[in-house]
């Protein structure tokens, strides 16, 4: 097993919330991941935290695996996949959290694969007037943005500070826009200075433009998840 494979190795763990497949080393965890929340202690929740129903021998307590709050079965009956916490199977969540997790499922089922497959862009570094044609993709462990051309860059996702998707075709009132590029700012390890990269979709082939637009849309969603995980 290589050093990278060893760092990315995973293990099966059991918590009160269910089975999780997590990285053996915390440093290898996905930047999109969320920590399991602490459960609200049973003694602190005599009533459902949603509908205020009093708990008794018939009305039992259930904890939402995403927020850790305490609910009755009626308010916490849905079992929904929660890949951001590495659960192997769908887990019980309250209605509000279930809705959020269901929206995230599309990212994990579709857009994450688009990011890993990559797309081709002209990449301009800093204030340079020269651009380089590069294939950009997300690494398999989701921790790096990898750029390959004549040059090679690996940008750690957690070092990215801002992402701005560039569009064209904007009309008053919105609509009819398409993603054509991206401005990215990130910190180089060991430096406090921000480095900027500009990504512009290649105009050579219509299939490249379509693939680039899909990749940029996926990157926009990934950025939203990244900022949300930093806030939680």
Automatic annotation (TrEMBL):
Domain of life (superkingdom): Eukaryota
Say yes or no: keyword Transcription regulation present: no
Write the protein's name.
ZFY21 protein
A GO molecular function for this record? Answer: zinc ion binding
Which stretches make up the FYVE-type domain?
42-97
* Alphabetized InterPro entries for the sequence: FYVE-type_Zinc_Finger, ZFYVE21_C, ZFYVE21_C_sf, Znf_FYVE, Znf_FYVE-rel, Znf_FYVE_PHD, Znf_RING/FYVE/PHD
What are the UniProt keywords, alphabetically?
Metal-binding, Zinc, Zinc-finger
- Statement: the UniProt record of this protein carries the keyword Isomerase: no
Family annotation (SMART domains) = FYVE
């Amino acid at each position: 097993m290589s050093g990278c494979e060893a760092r990315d190795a995973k293990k099966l763990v059991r918590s009160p919330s269910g089975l999780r497949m997590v990285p053996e080393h915390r440093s290898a965890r996905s930047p999109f991941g969320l920590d399991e929340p602490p459960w609200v202690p049973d003694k602190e929740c005599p009533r459902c935290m949603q509908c205020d129903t009093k708990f008794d021998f018939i009305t039992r307590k259930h904890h939402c695996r995403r927020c850790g709050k305490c609910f009755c079965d009626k308010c916490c009956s849905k079992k929904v996949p929660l890949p951001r916490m590495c659960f192997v199977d769908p887990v019980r969540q309250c209605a509000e959290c279930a809705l959020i997790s269901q929206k995230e499922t599309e990212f994990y089922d579709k857009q994450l694969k688009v990011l890993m497959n990559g797309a081709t862009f002209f990449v301009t570094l800093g204030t340079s007037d020269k651009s380089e044609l590069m294939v950009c993709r997300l690494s398999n462990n989701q921790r790096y943005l990898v750029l390959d051309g004549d040059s090679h860059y690996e940008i750690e996702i957690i070092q990215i500070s801002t992402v701005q998707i560039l569009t064209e075709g904007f009309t008053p009132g919105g609509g009819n826009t398409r993603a054509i590029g991206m401005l990215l700012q990130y910190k180089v390890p060991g430096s406090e200075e921000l480095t900027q990269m500009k990504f512009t979709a290649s105009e050579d082939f219509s299939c490249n433009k379509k693939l680039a637009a899909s990749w940029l849309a996926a990157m926009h969603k990934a950025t939203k998840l990244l900022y949300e995980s930093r806030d939680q």
